[in-house]
Amino acid sequence: MNSDGPSQASGFRDALVDCKRFFISAARECLRDQPDADANVRQELIRRMVDLHKGLLIKVYATVARADRSWSPEEQQLAAELVEHVWGTRLDGDSLTQAVRRVFRDAGGLRWYSLVRPFDRIAALRDRVADLETAVLRIANFIVKADGKVTHEEMNALRAIQHELNVHLHRLSLDESQPGEESRASGSQAIEIIHQDSTLLGSRQPPRDGGPRDALPGVPADSLEHALDDLRELIGLRQIKEEVTTLTNYLQLQQHRQAAGLPQHELSLHMVFTGNPGTGKTTVARIVGRIFKALGLLKKGHLVETDRSGLVAEYAGQTGPKTHRRIDEALDGVLFIDEAYSLVSSAQEDAYGLEAVQALVKRMEDDRLRLIVILAGYPDPMQELLQCNPGLKSRFNTQMHFEDYQPADLGRIFERMCQASCYELPGITRAKLLIGFTHLYQQRDDHFGNGRLVRNTFENCVRRLANRVAGVAPVTRELLTVLTPDDVHMDQVPSDLWNLLDDPHTRFGITCTRCRKSARVRADLLGKRVACPRCRETVLADWGEAMLRDRAAGE
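^ that's the sequence the OP posted. Answer follows.
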């Protein structure tokens, strides 16, 4: 018997609860695009996502526990925790054995893709794929290492789970029937996907008991202050925050003047967001919708994301209806058109794209009190788009440019992802990330990934961590949560740069938040509080500046 049994069971129980919370939060993320959904719809969606999480837990447990054709006492203890979590009943002895046999039998009928499909198909959940992988692999590792030893068969089972997640969550769609739209489902489509998958699941699960269903706690109405708080909490984007705040203050001023019977200046609220991918344009657009709703300018304030594939059809006569359908979805909210410049091809006459633009311009006028349009894309192509139609340019008076994130901000985004998934970053790991992000920032071009770069780096770190700990027993919290430098890998960073980590003279620049004194600290002090050498104020040396020579400038 593993002496760590009780603590293992407690950790496993916590992991199950965290997984459930994650699926509930994912359901709420989907509901953001359905502001008119009533309480019954909301509760039903959450119940179905909870059912999906239960099916996923059953699949993971069965995959690992029966891999080596033995069922250790420690695995039985975890099975009791799983059964209680899934069905609310504590079992032992023969009752537990019978329940687990049913789990093993039914798990064979559960398809991996049906269990994780919402995270592949629903646009609002794509950014949470790494969190899902973290939750699944955390639970799988508890089972693999329950008895303190890891068999070859269990290792293969763990790798099989990683493979299934990778195949289904990091794939390119080959469905040509609806190009570009399957992976961008939102709103009612998202709810339908969850309903389909959980319905398929329900027929294979053991019967639910007569206990109460998971209820949706009351969700308070969004307020202007809440929306502005979320804007302020965003990492970086100082100029964007100022511009959105100024626009908000201006709109409030006009409302006060209207209430006082004074003349107002009407301002077109349609916007153009320019900048590289991953700079927060979609996130800010969602907050803008919430602000406009709080001000009473929009009834719903929801965000509908689309691109050329969601507006332009392949055949004559289909583009107009397709464009109007997508605009109808966005009424009383915000229509966010990503890579909007692709609507009109500069290389040749694009009749279908021009038809979509003309339909958009007309609807912006006809529904000017019910629709806000935000066009997003690279700066120069966006200017070309605005020139293609005089009516289009005249309606977009507000343009905001999203700068690339600085290396320290990329680090802070990475840290926020770690905090959301319960990972820890030692100073030396922060140093490696900062060196890598600084090099990539110095070498960046118009296609620099920004937040997407961070997301990809984080997901890669999680996979490397999973491989690193797969053969280690017993499992500990530190093993599951601490990201080491070995977990960090960036293909485009020269290997010789990592030698800076072994150089005792390597330092990272920080600035005192009180007296603005610049200082340099060792890698192991990153993420810790240090005393300013001038004012003695204690400051957090969170990320700082890596002292790298700009190779692009030196070549």
